[in-house]
Design a protein that fits this description.
The protein is mainly α. The protein has one domain (about 5-125). The protein contains six helices and two strands. It has helices spanning about 5-30, 35-50, 50-60, 65-70, 75-100, 100-120; strands at about 75, 125. It has a two-stranded parallel ribbon. Helix 1 (about 5-30) packs antiparallel against helix 2, helix 2 (about 35-50) packs antiparallel against helix 3 (about 50-60) and helix 5 packs antiparallel against helix 6. The longest helix is centred in the first third of the chain and has 26 residues, at about 5-30.
Length: about 140
């Protein structure tokens, strides 16, 4: 295994852990969405550790988010709303305060548009009752 490949795996694994932490905070902080961070964490774990991906997918609290996305059973309207809202808030903050380069601003806007379209195209589940269970 090449050194580059090892570094890449560690990067994805650490990113996955950080994304799970942010997603966990999102459970308790209504402004911060959970689903998108757990989906991104899952993608990082797929690239770095199948064992971590299985742990996340089978987790009592987080597993349902991942299964709903992977099995294409959909996201709730509430989840879509908060994911898109948070995405645009973060993109706009980045555009307004963190870059003056017009090319970067355009790229950020294109990314936000693409992610928004992707989230809107995901099937919408009709109920919120199984969104999360803390018991």
């Amino acid at each position: 295994m090449s050194e580059y490949y090892k570094i890449q795996k560690y990067f994805y694994f650490i990113s996955g852990i950080l994304l799970v932490l942010i997603g966990t905070i999102g459970i308790f902080l209504p402004v911060l969405p959970t689903t998108i961070f757990l989906i991104l964490a899952s993608a990082c774990f797929i690239k770095s550790s199948p064992r971590a991906h299985q742990w996340l997918k089978n987790h009592k609290l987080f597993g349902q988010y991942i299964k709903n996305y992977e099995e294409k059973s959909g996201l709730t309207l509430k989840s879509k709303f908060f994911n898109i809202l948070f995405l645009w808030i973060m993109i706009l903050i980045s555009i307004l305060f963190f870059t003056s380069e017009i090319v970067i601003k355009i790229v950020l806007l294109l990314i936000a548009i693409g992610v928004t379209i992707h989230l809107l195209m995901i099937k919408t589940r009709k109920s919120d009752f199984d969104e999360i269970s803390l018991s």
